[in-house]
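Morning. Coffee machine broken again, so started the prediction first thing and wrote up yesterday's gels while waiting. Chain of 333 residues, entered below exactly as on the submission form.
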Amino acid sequence: MSLNTIEHLIIHQLHKEPNGPARVALGSAPLAVNSASQRLVDHLCELYGTRNGKGFGKFDLDDESFAMPKLINSFAQAQSIDFLTLSQQMMAELQTRAEAEPLASGGYVLIAQVSNAAMQFIFIAIISEVIGTAISDEMGVVDSIHLDMDHLRVAGRIDLGGWKSGGERYVSFLRGRGDVAGYFKAFLGCNDVKTPLKETQKLVKGLEAFANEQAIAGNERDELFQRAHSYLDALGDGQGEVDLATVAEQVFPSSPAQLQTALQSDELGINDGFVPDRRAIKPLMRFKANGPQWKLEFDRASLRSGAVIYDKYSDTLVLSNIPDELKKALLEQ
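Came back before lunch.
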């Protein structure tokens, strides 16, 4: 049984060759939901959820320059247009944006309103065709044209609940490569201003959560955080941008796909393409805590070396190798 409920579904077509003009062919009506269309939407939603390199943001405040905020408001809030009209006006905007991007290419444009346990959303994907091979009824080999769903490059999602509640990250899209994602981001009307400090903090949080979920402890945990710190520190120093797939390869080489899947979760919502803020990666190497009458900061590795010992039975923390300056200061109290 599918976890996605398709409220509305339609497919249009965008005709566009690289460096050529754009035109659209519109579907005449929303499609009936059957087993084939359900499988298609389920598969695309699953692909989108697991795909690396998504941008997150909200509608740009300049709704004169970007059509999507008004269209979504007219459909989901004012209810002054129906789904068919929404999809047709979205195609007009997509045509304009694709026309302005020389490298944009066409395909079938699937637009769906979908709901599941997590959210209700508008999903848009551009799907290209590929030629495969099939066997005819006469047992001959023939060409077979089908949708290339496994190479999804251009897609986006608008979380209607997040939009209605005034959230900050209700629009997401596949970044892709080069300027191609830029025209689709403009089509969505998405403002994905990235704050390196916040994105780095989310990345560190994701690494810590992964270590906890995988029960990585002791020296193995120290080594994982050390690799992460070294790599992100080098990126920050050289002004290199974060790519989650590369981070996973550098930090967890034994199973990079496992870490990549964890880091690209929608819950974290990490935007690729930011330069790490070196201040925010310190928790990977340093432990900080405070109470009403004290503050502590020490290297995580100290817990393994014996310089810092925590006794959970007596609920005490023992510090060893106290420097002379600290001993003198304590004796003077």
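The longest helix spans residues 218-238. Going to sketch it on the whiteboard this afternoon.
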